Amino acid sequence: MMLEDAGNLGDLVGSIGVIISLLLIARQTRQLTQQTKISNEVGSTEAAYSALERIHQISQIMIDDPQMQQYFHEDKDFPADKLERARVMMVAQVLADTIDYGLMVCDLRSHMENYQGWPAFAVSSMNTSPALRRVVDDHPEYWPRLNRQWREHRRELARP
């Protein structure tokens, strides 16, 4: 009878060990899920910050050369001077990169409510800049997200 009791006791201890192991695994899984969520939120914040830094770089160009603003905020056509025209087109390409990136971040992180101004900013920028429209229209494949946003906006305008 003692051997049987010892065997039953061994089975009981083994079962308790399995239950404790399962509880520990469940706890570790829950902690890993929380840690992954936090990491994703940090990544979202870093991506949003990067997009804002890019906008600040464009703003710095406008601060350094205030005449540049007319080509991006006042719907002014291209300058006649070839060198100035080349500068405007380069800034337009950088702005297109920046807006395209911001829209992609916005799409990937749709839960970031305070980050949803990018679509409106994209449309506003396209509306007030012939240079930006030109670079995006000439190479829509370079800025697919910005191009899509602009096409959607134009379709909405065309609806009765």
Write the layout of secondary structure elements.
Elements: H1 2-64, H2 70-73, H3 82-108, H4 118-127, H5 130-138, H6 144-158
Helix pairs in contact: 1-3, 3-4, 3-5, 3-6, 4-6
Task: Tell me what you see in this structure.
With 160 residues, this protein is mostly helical. It is built from 6 helices and no strands. The protein has helices at 2-64, 70-73, 82-108, 118-127, 130-138, 144-158. α3 runs antiparallel to α4 and α4 (118-127) packs across α6. It is elongated.
Summarize the structure.
The protein is an all-alpha fold. Helix content is 80%, strand content 0%.
Fraction of residues in helices? over 70%
Structural class: mainly alpha
- Report how far apart the termini are: 91 Å
Q: How much of the sequence is in beta strands?
A: under 5%
| SS summary, helix count | 6
Number of strands: 0
Q: So what's the overall shape?
A: elongated
Mean pLDDT: 87
Radius of gyration, CA atoms, in whole angstroms: 28 Å
Give me the strand/helix succession: HHHHHH
Low-confidence stretches: none
Largest sheet: none
Features:
about 160 residues; mainly alpha; 6 helices; about 80% helix; about 0% strand; elongated
